[in-house]
Amino acid sequence: MFSFFKKKTPPPAQPEKQPEPSPETDAAAPAPTPAPEAAPTVTVPTAPLPRAADEADKTSGAGQLKTSAVEPSSPAPAAPEPARRPSWTERLKAGLSKTRDKLGKSLAGLFGGGKIDEDLYEELETVLLTADMGVDATTHLLKDVRERVSLRGLKDASELKGALKDALADLIEPLEKPLQVEAKKPFVIMLAGVNGAGKTTSIGKLAKYYQSQGKSVLLAAGDTFRAAAREQLMAWGERNNVTVIAQQGGDAAAVCFDAIKAAEARGIDIVLADTAGRLPTQLHLMEEIRKVKRVIQKARPDAPHEVVLVLDANIGQNALNQVKAFDEALGLTGLILTKLDGTAKGGVIAAIAKQHPVPLRFIGVGESIDDLRPFSARDYVDALFD
Ligand SMILES: Nc1nc2c(ncn2[C@@H]2O[C@H](COP(=O)(O)OP(=O)(O)OP(=O)(O)O)[C@@H](O)[C@H]2O)c(=O)[nH]1
After folding, report:
1. Is 338 annotated as a binding residue?
2. What is the per-residue DSSP string for 195-245?
3. Per-position DSSP letters for 311-341, written without gaps between them
4. Where is the composition biased (Low complexity) (predicted)?
5. What distance in angstroms lies between residue 202's CA and the mean position of ligand 1's atoms?
6. C-alpha 265 to ligand 1 mean position (Å)
7. What is the ipTM of this complex?
8. What backbone phi and psi angles, to 5 degrees, belong to 170?
9. Is any atom of ligand 1 closer than 6 Å to the C-beta of 226?
10. What distances in angstroms separate CA 105 from CA 95, 131, 385, one per listed residue?
11. Running along the chain, 386 residues long, what does each successive block of 10 average in pLDDT?
């Protein structure tokens, strides 16, 4: 768990009242997973909602205030910075050390010297497969490397590294499409994924990332199933001066609807909408997340502007199945690959590029708040090989 999510801010004593049913929470599908709390209750905001947000709640059909906008009165003091923070490139390299160690050790033997022959290609094939690149990407890379070898007239195994790096960079480069958030205001980003993939922590990291670019951010605590996810976001929002729209034990779609209305009323740049974790095989939950998307569209017809699947890199080739299933259900526009630091399966990016390419917007290589950055194919390849 992130340290910035670990620290909990004790909530103030809060009166509770029963909410009215929310009309935007259409009854197309029953709430798929009962919330842990028996009856939804109202969390009164720590600071009174500005009038604009009240308007937003009226617009959303909530006669009474049922979502809470948690707004800290003042940002927490910044934690003392370490003497010198490693650069992103250093952290990327450190984060990819497991994949690099596995790949690098095997490749060091291959690239050590000697002739380029069939035995060498066979060994290279094994190395790529064990780095979780998958059969299709491995076959593609081998063919590409062979072509480069013959085009460049390479003879010695030591020259193979450059050819492989170029082939891999070419394969994964199409995934490098940085997210453009300027075109819409608010730009609504919906995050989906299986349990524990890193959605909530990625939202915290993204909020910080966009704040550092001078953008205003609002968070929708749409993971109404796991209470700790809402608390994570609320605590994080309080410490970083970001408004969090939350509802205790309520409906994810309604939370997202209210968040968008609040963001519109306040002129917020970016809405980050969390959702509960689910497996693609849990069909009722996949239907529920489709409903969340539909309700977001009701709040704002062109939204969500980005539907991101958050993937845990540790699952290797299984990531492909998740991409296909969530893409079919939601129409994905982007991916975030987390926990590349904890795995030797970083090659899965090549598998995604070959078999089901969806833009890889961000990669996560550590637990620190700065360890999520836009994906750069060349940086990634360099960090993997050098
Ligand atoms: N090492 C490492 N850990 C990460 C990274 N991203 C997320 N985590 C950790 O992964 C764990 C799960 O993260 P969450 O954000 O709670 O996952 P989630 O997808 O919101 O989980 P659910 O709400 O259960 O679906 C936490 O302990 C995070 O600290 C990463 O890039 N590297």
Report:
1. yes
2. TTSSHHHHHHHHHHHHHHTT--EEEE----SSHHHHHHHHHHHHHHT-EEE
3. EEGGGTTHHHHHHHHHHHHH---EEEEE-GG
4. 38-51
5. 7
6. 31
7. 0.96
8. -65, -35
9. yes
10. 17, 12, 10
11. 41 36 34 33 32 36 48 53 70 76 70 82 89 92 95 86 93 96 96 94 93 95 86 86 86 95 96 95 94 96 97 90 95 95 81 96 89 92 82
Ligand 1 centroid–CA 201 distance in Å is: 6
Residue type present at position 117: D
Ligand 1 atom nearest to CA at 201: 15
Tell me the Cα Rg of the chain. Answer: 23
Amino acid letter for position 14: Q
User: For 18-21, which contacts have Cβ atoms below 8 Å and span 24 or more sequence positions?
Assistant: 18/42, 19/62, 19/64, 19/66, 19/247, 19/250, 20/62, 20/63, 20/64, 20/66
For the chain, first and last CA: distance in Å?
A: 30
pTM for the model: 0.79
The CA distance from 142 to 167, in Å, is: 9
Q: H-helix or E-strand containing 88?
A: helix 88-95
Q: Which of helix, strand or coil describes residue 41?
A: strand
Beta bridge partners of 41: 248
